Known about the structure:
The chain is of the alpha+beta class. Helices cover 29% and strands 28% of the residues. The chain contains 9 helices and 10 strands. It has helices at 69-78, 104-119, 126-134, 140-145, 179-184, 213-219, 221-230, 252-260, 278-286, and strands at residues 4-22, 28-48, 54-56, 87-93, 149-153, 157-160, 167-172, 236-238, 245-249, 267-274. Helix 1 (69-78) packs parallel to helix 2, helix 2 (104-119) packs across helix 3 (126-134) and helix 6 crosses helix 7. The longest helix has 16 residues, at 104-119. The radius of gyration is 19 Å and the shape is globular. The two termini are 14 Å apart. 41% of the residues are buried. The mean pLDDT is 92. It catalyses: 4-CDP-2-C-methyl-D-erythritol + ATP = 4-CDP-2-C-methyl-D-erythritol 2-phosphate + ADP + H(+). Its EC number is 2.7.1.148.
Amino acid sequence: MTASITLPSPAKLNLFLHIVGRRPDGYHELQTLFQFLDYGDDISLTLTPDQPGIRLATPIPGVSEEDNLIVRAARALAAKASGDLPGVSIAINKRLPLGGGLGGGSSNAATSLIGLNHLWQLGLGLDELAETGLTLGADVPVFVRGHAAFGEGVGEKLTPAFPPEDWFLVLKPACNINTGKIFSEQGLTRNTSRIRIAPAFEGDASRYRNDCEDVVRRLYPEVDQSMEWLKKFGPARLTGTGACIFGRFPTESAARIIWESKPSGIIGFVAKGVNVSPLHQKLTELE
């Protein structure tokens, strides 16, 4: 049995996010296009046969162990095992900002599920892992499945998609956004017309937007100011409920030129959009 493994936990972007209705349980019906970035966290999983249990070697400031999706994912997977499992120590090299709309927590959960399935030799398929992931968060299944996808429902109904693998400049304004607050706002658009599975950005790009963007920009001036700056260089968009915004560029050098001129006080990065998750690329190398 392999004793240790380090796997990528990539970011995602919502290339668009349409809110097409509201369900009786209060959740919103979405249509969105997920694409991964070749940038994210790294998670190291080490088996500890002499120390049973699940331990987080690198706690995340401000996140309790009970709320940490890495720990919750590991416990959910352990509950599916029929026999005793060796203990595991989990460490994370955290690059993705918390509360950025990049899916960091969901990605961490998915990487933990897939990595522990491998280390513990449970033999579970992606369907079962995605089903477990959905109990942790609506975005976890897309990370488990590992392919860019058109998402519907609360984001869990996935159809593989193939958007252009462009370069992105991602900026994180200096604010943290409460997703629940955004989805409960009176002024939020909730009746965007449904579209059929669309090849991303073919035809009129104005058909695609992020329905959370107007509300977020109104409530968070930092996002509004960053958006105004980035829009000087081309279309800019919010991912998820933010706070991160992104602009797309045809080349890495084009994105980096803009990055070099960013306003002070804003953090961010340049990354390539990829349709196969770096996590699944790494797993292919291990097979």
